[in-house]
Amino acid sequence: MNAHRPRKRFGQHFLSDPGVIDAIVRAIDPQPGDTIVEIGPGHGAITEPLARKAGVLHCVELDRDLAAALRHRFAASDKVAIHEADALSFDFCALGDSLRIVGNLPYNISTPLLFHLIDSRDCISDMHFMLQKEVVDRMSAAPGSKAYGRLGIMLGCHLSVESLFDVGPQCFDPPPAVTSAVVRLAPLGSDRPAIDDEKLLGRLVAAAFSQRRKTVRNALKTLLDESELRSLGIDPGQRPETLPILDYVNAANYVSRRDGDSG
Ligand code: SAH
After folding, report:
1. Ordered DSSP codes for 25-68
2. What angle do CA 232, 234, 235 make, to 5 degrees?
3. Is ligand 1 within 6 A of the CB of residue 14?
4. Among 205, 107, 93, 212, which residue's Cα sits nearest to residue 156?
5. Whose CA is nearest to atom 5 of ligand 1?
6. How do beta strands 56-61 and 80-84 pair?
């Protein structure tokens, strides 16, 4: 199995540090009643300890050779299922509900994968991912901070985001070029803001952040005029990176209702 050569295009950096593997499994804290879905199990660094503790473990691996090796390795286990598939188009909700999703993700697909998982949020109870620290910083950034922007806003509408700990490149084989971090995500409950039109919100946020150092007035001028911004309680002279998530949701909901079906 170790004859496998890491495939760069699959973002393969295998965890090799037992302390970090242990810390991740402890953060996940698998329970016998849990259905866990691991994305990109690779050589199974965290798969093995998860399988020992979880009720059911589904693994989604794109690399045919790695999927075959895992299938062979867990052939005797009736609680581990290996799916040779692309996580970006995988139908997670077909596996059940209250899913706990985990993975040391391929960093090159992390943003589209997060958006795909947001679409599956109704069948997810929580998620633990290893990602580039820079991405985790953007996911968990507060308004007004440099890392705050489109990713944090679009995730923050649906999920709580908690950065757990950083992981250095030396904990992987081969080492990635960047520092990584483990993040915990959980769908928000009833305190989640109601969004009328997710696509419109996405367009509005993209417009707001299309050029840094613009005012809200200029960045959003094709969608909202100054008096509309004021009526929403938004100061048109503010910078987009200082507006809280709820202002974006309220602005998008306002545009959606104003324009009706034609919007
Ligand atoms: N979890 C392992 C491997 C991490 S490397 C460990 O920590 O050691 C990332 C893994 O994701 C690789 O096994 C890679 O083949 C897999 N992968 C890459 N793109 C994928 C995709 N689109 N869907 C599912 N798995 C993918």
Report:
1. HHHH---TT-EEEEE--TTTTTHHHHHHH-SEEEEEE--HHHHH
2. 140
3. yes
4. 205
5. 12
6. parallel
Nearest residue to 176 via CA among 133, 140, 113: 133
Q: Ligand 1 pocket, 176 CB below 6 A?
A: no
Domains of the chain: 8-189 (3.40.50.150), 198-262 (1.10.8.100)
C-alpha distance across the termini of the chain, in Å = 54
**pLDDT tens per residue, range 76-114:** 999 999 999 999 999 999 999 999 999 999 888 999 999
| Nearest atom (ligand 1) to Cα of 21 | 7
Q: Is the CB of 209 under 6 A from ligand 1?
A: no
3 contacts: CB under 8 Å, gap ≥ 6: none
> Ligand 1, atom 10: nearest CA belongs to which residue?
40
For ligand 1, whether the C-beta of 115 sits within 6 Å is no
User: Each residue of 22-72: pLDDT tens digit?
Assistant: 999 999 999 999 999 999 999 999 999 999 999 999 999 999 999 999 999
Provide the whole-model pTM. 0.93
